[in-house]
Design a protein that fits this description.
Number of strands: 6
Number of domains: 1
Helix content: 40-55%
CATH superfamily: Histone deacetylase domain
CATH architecture: 3-Layer(aba) Sandwich
Strand content: 5-15%
Structural class: alpha/beta
Strand order of the largest sheet: 1-6-5-2-3-4
Order of helices and strands: HHHHHEHEHEEHEHEH
CATH topology: Arginase, Chain A
Largest sheet: 6 strands, parallel
Distance between the termini: 29 Å
Length: about 280
């Protein structure tokens, strides 16, 4: 949890962003929750009556303040999308809770923030087509399931093939990478697929999940990327969107390196790249 307060402090300290570039989200409305998640799941969350098994699947004890935090994160990703329409890019310090399904949470994910945001934008007619670029090291299984029957949302997940979750869902495009994949193979794979997706799908908006658990230092990652390679990944995604004038909303996703400083540096690079490209 420390990274969520330390990252903004670092970005302000070094001058990458200024105070007036921050926004604060309100909690997501119950109506918006129920357009992505089931009423039964929401009732269990709001009354703190999840079963022991359901809580274990999420991975941390459920408390009212954590539910509220999840609502703010989800609204923040929706707000980011709308800021991106204006500014080209916007970033959520948190978010990327892609293991949350309609009726349950998994893997430290309670609400699926990108799915909630995508559904709200489609409902309001603000977009016709969305591309989700999920480059967290873990497959976005909840997101894949939620949009399996939605042709207006294309889900792309590039992840560790042998990593969590053991049982993968089917995204519109899944690329499973072997353990130990480093910068060269990772980036070549991304260079090959992303431009074709952007040109083929022609989305009105890209949601980019920029997890830094792809690093070799990550305790849960199993890949072997460097900080430099991870930064180049972010640059390529954001530059590719900018070149095509496609707004991009970024959620930070996972990062579990031993040294907190490594996590902050990797996430900060995403902001540094965005600031340099969209200044």
């Amino acid at each position: 949890m420390d990274k969520y307060s330390l990252l903004p402090e670092q970005l302000l300290y070094e001058g990458t962003i200024t105070e007036d570039q921050f926004f604060t989200a309100s909690p997501l409305s119950e109506a918006a929750i129920l357009r992505t998640h089931t009423a039964e799941y929401w009732t269990k969350l709001s009354t703190n009556t999840l079963s022991v098994k359901e809580v274990r699947a999420i991975g941390f004890p459920m408390r009212p303040d954590l539910i509220e935090r999840g609502r703010v994160i989800a609204q923040g990703t929706l707000d980011c999308a709308r800021y991106a329409f204006r500014d080209g890019v916007a970033l959520n310090v948190a978010g990327g809770t892609h293991h949350s399904f309609a009726d349950h949470g998994e893997g430290f994910c309670v609400f699926n923030d990108i799915a909630v945001a995508a559904n709200e934008l489609l409902r309001m007619g603000e977009v016709e087509k969305i591309l989700i670029v999920d480059l967290d090291v873990h497959q976005g299984n909840g997101t894949a399931r939620l949009f399996a029957q939605e042709p207006k949302v294309f889900t792309f997940s590039m992840h560790g093939a042998r990593n969590y979750p053991t049982r993968k869902e089917k995204s519109d495009l899944d690329i499973g990478l072997p353990d130990g994949t480093g910068d060269a193979v990772y980036l070549d794979t991304l260079y090959h697929h992303l431009p074709k997706l952007l040109d083929g799908v022609q989305p009105d908006l890209v949601f980019y999940l920029s997890g830094v658990d792809v690093l070799a230092t990550d305790k849960l990652g199993r890949l072997a990327m460097t900080l430099r390679g991870c930064k180049e990944r972010d640059h390529f995604v954001l530059q590719s969107c900018q070149d095509r004038q496609i707004p991009v909303a970024v959620a930070m996703g996972g990062g579990y390196s031993e040294r907190l400083a490594t996590i902050i540096e990797a996430h900060a690079n995403t902001y540094r790249v965005a600031a340099s490209l969209f200044a």
